[in-house]
């Protein structure tokens, strides 16, 4: 595996390379990026892992949404500085809910698929921020303060927020308090080194 990974020219683009992703019928799904470790995880698991430049982390495609990409073939270009993944997608590739990120011609308006649900994406972004605040405490950060105060405070705050949901008197208040509860639940999970993806996996197992 190391020999295969080392064939890629990682140094040319600062340790990451562009990745064209297409399905087994030849339709281009998206353009992503990989680091050495992302390619390693892809080869080890058989599922596409990409490097997120905005979040500076490796993520498995569909780790929260379930829209994973089963990798059938990995190709490298003539200069060894770009990859092509041929995949079997389990759901949309695009964050808009469309099958491919290239669903429109230049100049056409963006189209959001009706079934798209951004909630899990928002939760995943919040989870990542909470993890960062845990690993590096930041002055003035409420999240960092919770981690500094420890388990008793974290568990107490989650319990308080859960009660606030139960006693909320109207629809708007329930929504507001539920948002607070979900945030504190993610803090509790992060304290125990449990990822949201693990919870989603358990829910998926129960559904089967």
TrEMBL record:
HAMAP family: HisE (MF_01020), HisI (MF_01021), HisIE (MF_01019). The lineage of its organism: Archaea, Methanobacteriati, Methanobacteriota, Thermococci, Thermococcales. Keywords: Amino-acid biosynthesis, ATP-binding, Cytoplasm, Histidine biosynthesis, Hydrolase, Multifunctional enzyme, Nucleotide-binding. GO terms for molecular function: ATP binding; phosphoribosyl-AMP cyclohydrolase activity; phosphoribosyl-ATP diphosphatase activity. InterPro entries: His_synth_HisIE, HisE, PRA-CH, PRib-ATP_PPHydrolase-like, PRib_AMP_CycHydrolase_dom, PRib_AMP_CycHydrolase_sf. This is Histidine biosynthesis bifunctional protein HisIE. In the C-terminal section; belongs to the PRA-PH family. Residues 123-208 are annotated as: Phosphoribosyl-ATP pyrophosphohydrolase. Gene3D superfamilies: MazG-like, Phosphoribosyl-AMP cyclohydrolase. Residues 31-103 form the Phosphoribosyl-AMP cyclohydrolase domain. Its EC number is 3.5.4.19, 3.6.1.31. It catalyses: 1-(5-phospho-beta-D-ribosyl)-ATP + H2O = 1-(5-phospho-beta-D-ribosyl)-5'-AMP + diphosphate + H(+); 1-(5-phospho-beta-D-ribosyl)-5'-AMP + H2O = 1-(5-phospho-beta-D-ribosyl)-5-[(5-phospho-beta-D-ribosylamino)methylideneamino]imidazole-4-carboxamide. It is found in: Cytoplasm. Pathway: Amino-acid biosynthesis; L-histidine biosynthesis; L-histidine from 5-phospho-alpha-D-ribose 1-diphosphate: step 2/9; Amino-acid biosynthesis; L-histidine biosynthesis; L-histidine from 5-phospho-alpha-D-ribose 1-diphosphate: step 3/9. One of its GO terms (biological process) is L-histidine biosynthetic process. Pfam families: PRA-CH (PF01502), PRA-PH (PF01503). Residues 1-122 are annotated as: Phosphoribosyl-AMP cyclohydrolase. It comes from Thermococcus onnurineus (strain NA1). GO terms for cellular component: cytoplasm. It comes from the Archaea.
